[in-house]
Every structure is written in structure tokens, then in C-alpha cells.
Design goal:
heterodimer, A: 180 residues, 2 domains, four-stranded antiparallel β-sheet, 46% helix, B: 485 residues, mainly alpha, 15 helices, globular
């Protein structure tokens, strides 16, 4: 870490157990921070509530995808088989919602699945291949067995002394600054 | 093994926390109280280090078989599908048998990843990644057949909603067209689901990478995953929705495959029992394949603490349940043939059991109905050699089921002058063997380069992952010192 142009991204506090990081998250939230996050190797049960996160909005993307899929299927089949080039097949109607249902059903699922995956990526602002945290050696243990709380320097409540104290009081055995 | 607790039943608890009595303890999903780090190390080790010799021993024959597939496909495409044994009146034979068989195998992967997720069966985490990979590769093998059996493969694009050279659109009143949508959606959604599950685990491999190339490639496909809880929150919701979407999908795919038959008016095909019966059979064969793949792999890769005997036990029970449903469906077909009073239907089912293809029918009933009944016994479910042999017999039986349904229904229809006897040619047989080459080539590449176990999901089902469990640090002021292996 060069002294001259070191610009901090935030302060990371390491935790060793899921319970300790959960309680620490409750404290950080109670202290009124906004730009902070908890990093875990797997989703920790109850963490959304501890952080005060609202229900994820991914469902809306999946729903819109599903509606778009079903509508596309029905309109496409109706237009192709009944409008643009109608052909009589076995005396069956040119368009019937029943025979058009199976492909439309599949398209509902297909578009809904794309909606939920890409909705998730969009809400998470991924892919993002460069992130200050990914450059930190210690932080790479987050996918192994460690838990981290990161408080960004941009947070209005952030202060190098007070924030460090808060993380220490929350029980973090290892705290360090991460370069931006 | 040496550092772990001797009794796999007990969970590692911090000192000072009283152990609950053994009868009140849940059997942990990860045996021997393994730590988070151990899970990462053990699973990532499969993709790191020197390639084991046995991997080459399995991989090289797979690639040779894949070459056979390439040869037979080029031969039959350049010569015409007349090189197959398909002949009037049996115009659908091994091509469609193998298509349905491979598609069916895929179903266990989606069942494990989606339906068991919705049912909160947490044991699925140990097997879902490999099962989903199996699904994708099985659907790839299946997809070859419909594409090739049309004869002139260069017209395959007529299947898609693109106007052909006479501006005619595909005809959506046919179940064959529904099948195109069902199978292609199934493949795409399976890949999405699989890839989404892989994102956090690719990040595991990225963060452990020793070389620049590995770091770059795993990092690229991990999309910059950091394990942020704000991300996990959206991720878990998306995963739940994908599971919710895949459940009706997997039920619809084999239902629609079965409609290819049941919408026609041939005795043996024209029955309403087909959709549920096909789905049960598909799950049955898929679990057979999962067991055949995972029983050897868990010993080769030393994953016995993650894929425990309990996992094998549960999968045997699913096989037993679905095998019994299939047996019920066989009985019901015979009952309805008699009860309907339709002479063609009655003749067809007697012909199945007593006609010239009796050997196929006997193979089907013994492998699918009788053999799985052994799984009622715990001793059998705990014997890996027997389970492995039985899991292969399940898939032999399910192959014969499709053969019975397709070839036996076609070979003797309404007019005796229209009867015939089908025999496969060497091209049929070699193409089928070749699809195994494709499947195993893909599968061995998968286990060598991607995490075969869903690392982050398995970590999430250990007792120490639960912040309300003493092993997770609940009600303890001091953080527990890390227990490294």
C-alpha cells in the first residue's frame, strides 16, 4: 500500500462464524450505515432481516418474462397459422388456444427463466469483473470459509477511527482498509 | 479422515456446549463434521493438480466412441436414413427409442435441482450439480436423433418458426412441433439453471487459482461474484423462481414427448395414461443414471463425506417409488386394454406379452418392476455394488420400455398383411454407442474442469452454517478459533 496515492474503498472486518457476522451486521445496521454489505461464502439464514433488506425484486422480471413469453407464443402461432399463411390440416381450426397452449406454455417458462437470471444479474449489477474487493488478498477467503463486513468510505457515517471501533466491538478479529 | 470425529452421526460442537442426546440429533448432511474449508478444498482438488490416470482411462475411450458417433452420423447423413433398420411398418425405431431414453435420463437432474428444492430436501445439494450436468449432456445426446431422423438434416431449420422457401410456417397443431419447443426450452432452461448455480462456485475456483489463465477464465465466468449478501438475496430469489419454473417444465417435457405417441390413434400409443407414466419413468431412469455415475465417482474423488450413504439410500427410495409407479402404469395399461373392450387394444397388449417381441417385454418388466423391489431392503440400499448393478439394470429396463412402446406398437397394427418384424442395423447400434461417447466425453470434461459438487450450497447445509446452531457460533460471545484441516 503506497502511502502517497492510497485511496481507500472501505474497511473490511473479518468474522469466523455465521452467528458472529449476523450479530455484527445487526450492530452495523443499528449504527445507521447505508453503504455497507456483508460477504459470505453461502447465503446466511436470517441475514436479509439482520441487514434490513427488502424482498428481492427478481420476481417482477420473471413475471414480465413469463407474460411476454405466453403472449409471444399465442400471437405468433395465431398469426403464422391463421393469418399469414392459413392451411387446413385434418379439418382442424386455423387457430385454437388449446393446440397453441403447449408451445406458449414452454415459451412462458423460457422467457420467465431468462427474466429471472438476467433480472438477478441486472439487480446485482453483474457482470462486474473489476471490483476493489477482488484485489484484496484477505478478502479472497470469502469464497472459502470467512465472513466479511465491508463499510464503504463513501458512507456519510464513515470515519476511520469510529468505524474501526464499531467493527472491533462487533467482534471482528481482523480489520483492514481496502484500496480502491 | 484422521482429524475428524470418529462418529459421523455427531456434529462438532464448541467445547462447553452440551451435546443433545443422540436420538434427538439430526444426521448431518456432511459427514464427519467437515469444515467449510475442507469442502472447498476437497471439491476444488478435483479440478486442480495433476490429471489422475483413471481419468484418462475413462476419457480416451469416451472420445473414441465420440469419433464413432461422428463417423456413423456422417455416413447416415451422406447416404440417407435407409441405412437404419427402420422399414415398413416400423418407421420409428431406435432413433426415437434413444431420443426418448436420453431425454428421460435428463429428468432426474431437473427433478433434483427444482422439485426437491421446492420440497426443501436439503440432501439434494450434494448431488444436484452432477445431476444437472447429466441432464444437459443427456439432452444433447437426445437432440441428435430428431435432428437426424428427418433424413435431410439440412432442412432442420423448418422446425423453427422461420418461414421456409415457400413462405410456409411450421404447423403448430402437431405435437411434434410442441416437442421442438418443449425440448429446446428444456435444454436452455437447464443450462441457465446449471450456470446460475455455478456462478458462486466458479468464484471459489477463481479465488484459489494459482495460474493467471485459471484466474482469468474462472473469473470471467464467475462474472465478478463477491458473495455480497445483497447479491445473495437476489440470487436466492432468482434460484427459487427458476426452481418454480423448472418444475412445471420438467413435468411438461416428457408429457409432451408422450403426446407424440398418444395423440396418434395406434393401439399401444393412444392412451391418456401416457403423460404421468412417461414422467415417472423418466425420473426413474434418471435416478438410475445418477446412481450409476455417482457411486464410482464418490469413491474415486473421496467424496464419501459429502455424498454419504444416506444420499444413496434416499436416491434408492426415489427409484423404488418411481419404479413402482411405472409398474402400476404397466398393469393399468393391461387392465384398460381388457376393460375398454377394444379388440385392437386387447390384441396389442396380448401381443406385447406373448408375441414375437416377448423377450423385450420380459426385459422391461423384470428390470423396471421386479428389480427395484429389492430396494425395499435396507441391506440392499447400503450395498454399493448391488445398487450400482441395479441402477444399470434400471436404465436397461427403461430402454426396453421405449422399445416396447415404439416398435411393438408399430410392428403389428390393424391389418395382418401390414405386419413386420424390426431388426436394427450396425448403423443403429453404432450411433447409439456413439451417443455414450458424446455423453461421457462431456461428463468427464465437466468433472475435470468444473466443481462437481455445489460447494456453496453444501456449505450452507452444514450445522456451522446456521447462525442459530451452537456449531455456527450461536450464543457464544467469543468467536471460535478457526479449525483448519
Amino acid at each position: 500500500m503506497a502511502e502517497t496515492n492510497f485511496k481507500a474503498y472501505g474497511m473490511i472486518g473479518e468474522f469466523r462464524t455465521s452467528a458472529s457476522v449476523l450479530h455484527a451486521a445487526e450492530k452495523v445496521r443499528a449504527a445507521g450505515f447505508r453503504k455497507w454489505d456483508v460477504f459470505t461464502p453461502f447465503p446466511v439464514h436470517g441475514m436479509d432481516r439482520a441487514m434490513g433488506l427488502k424482498n428481492s425484486k427478481v420476481g417482477w422480471f420473471a413475471f414480465l418474462g413469463g407474460v411476454a413469453g405466453y403472449t409471444t407464443g399465442m400471437l405468433m402461432i395465431w398469426w403464422m397459422n391463421a393469418v399469414d399463411y392459413p392451411i387446413v390440416i385434418g379439418g382442424k381450426p386455423m387457430f385454437s388456444p388449446f393446440s397453441a397452449f403447449p408451445p406458449s406454455y414452454e415459451l412462458t417458462i423460457l422467457f420467465g427463466a431468462f427474466g429471472s437470471l438476467f433480472g438477478m444479474l441486472f439487480l446485482n449489477r453483474l457482470p462486474r469483473l473489476h471490483h476493489p474487493l477482488l484485489k484484496n488478498k484477505r478478502f479472497s477467503l470469502v469464497t472459502h470459509d470467512r465472513f466479511f463486513i465491508v463499510i464503504e468510505c463513501d458512507d456519510p457515517k464513515y470515519s476511520e477511527v469510529e468505524t474501526r471501533k464499531l467493527l472491533e466491538e462487533a467482534g471482528s478479529p481482523h480489520i483492514e482498509l481496502v484500496e480502491d | 479422515m484422521s482429524t475428524a470425529a470418529a462418529n459421523p452421526i455427531t456434529t462438532k460442537l464448541p467445547s462447553g456446549v452440551p451435546q443433545p442426546p443422540p436420538e434427538l440429533q439430526r444426521i448431518p448432511l456432511v459427514a464427519n463434521g467437515r469444515s467449510f474449508g475442507w469442502i472447498s478444498n476437497q471439491v476444488a482438488a478435483l479440478t486442480e493438480g495433476r490429471t489422475p490416470v483413471w481419468w484418462w482411462i475413462c476419457f480416451v475411450p469416451s472420445v473414441l466412441l465420440l469419433g464413432l458417433l461422428g463417423f456413423t452420423l456422417s455416413y447416415q447423413i451422406s447416404t440417407g436414413v435407409g441405412v437404419w433398420g427402420n422399414m415398413h411398418p416400423v418407421m420409428w425405431a431406435w432413433d426415437i427409442v434413444n431420443f426418448v431414453w436420453w431425454i428421460g435420463i435428463g429428468h432426474a437432474g431437473t427433478l433434483i435441482s427444482a422439485i426437491l428444492f421446492l420440497l426443501r430436501q436439503r440432501w439434494r445439494t450434494a448431488v444436484n450439480r452432477a445431476a444437472e450436468a447429466m441432464t444437459i449432456f443427456a439432452v444433447m445426446c437426445a437432440g441428435i436423433y430428431p435432428a437426424v431422423h428427418v433424413g435431410r438434416v439440412w432442412y432442420d431449420w423448418w422446425l423453427f418458426p422461420i418461414p421456409n422457401s415457400n413462405s410456409i410456417w411450421p404447423q403448430f397443431r402437431s405435437p411434434l412441433m410442441w416437442d421442438v419447443f418443449a425440448v429446446s426450452t428444456y435444454f436452455t432452461v437447464s443450462v441457465l439453471f446449471w450456470y446460475m448455480g455455478l456462478i458462486p462456485d466458479l468464484a471459489v475456483l477463481r479465488d484459489r487459482a494459482k495460474t493467471k489463465l485459471r484466474q482469468f477464465l474462472y473469473g470471467l465466468f464467475a462474472l465478478g461474484w463477491t458473495g455480497s449478501n445483497r447479491h445473495w438475496s437476489n440470487y436466492e430469489k432468482a434460484y427459487l423462481i427458476l426452481a418454480g419454473l423448472s418444475t412445471p417444465l420438467v413435468l411438461s417435457v416428457h408429457s409432451i414427448v408422450s403426446l407424440d405417441f398418444s395423440v396418434s390413434q395406434l393401439p399401444g400409443w393412444h392412451t391418456t395414461i401416457f403423460p404421468p407414466y412417461f414422467v415417472a419413468g423418466a425420473v426413474f431412469s434418471g435416478f438410475g443414471m445418477v446412481l450409476s455415475l455417482l457411486i464410482p465417482l464418490r469413491s474415486m474423488f473421496k467424496l464419501q463425506d459429502i455424498i454419504t450413504m444416506r444420499h444413496i439410500d434416499v436416491m434408492c427410495k426415489v427409484t423404488l417409488a418411481t419404479g413402482s409407479i411405472v409398474g402400476y402404469a404397466y398393469a393399468m395399461e393391461f387392465f384398460i386394454a381388457w376393460y375398454s373392450g377394444n379388440p385392437n387394444e386387447r390384441f396389442h397388449f396380448l401381443n406385447r406379452a406373448l408375441g414375437p417381441y416377448q423377450w423385450a417385454w420380459i426385459m422391461m418388466v423384470s428390470c423396471n418392476v421386479l428389480v427395484p423391489q429389492l430396494f425395499w431392503f435396507k441391506k440392499v440400499r447400503q450395498n454399493l455394488v448391488i445398487v450400482f448393478i441395479m441402477s444399470i439394470l434400471v436404465n436397461v429396463g427403461m430402454w426396453f420400455e421405449r422399445f416396447v412402446i415404439i416398435v411393438l406398437s408399430l410392428h403389428r397394427d390393424f391389418i395382418p398383411s401390414n405386419w413386420g418384424y424390426y431388426r436394427p442395423t450396425w448403423v443403429d447400434i453404432c450411433t447409439y454407442l456413439g451417443t455414450f461417447g458424446l455423453f461421457f466425453t462431456m461428463f468427464f470434461l465437466f468433472i475435470r474442469f468444473l466443481p462437481m459438487i455445489a460447494v456453496s450450497e453444501v456449505k450452507g447445509v452444514t450445522p456451522q452454517a446456521d447462525p442459530h446452531h451452537p456449531a455456527g457460533g450461536a450464543k457464544i460471545e467469543e468467536p471460535i478459533p478457526d479449525e483448519e484441516e
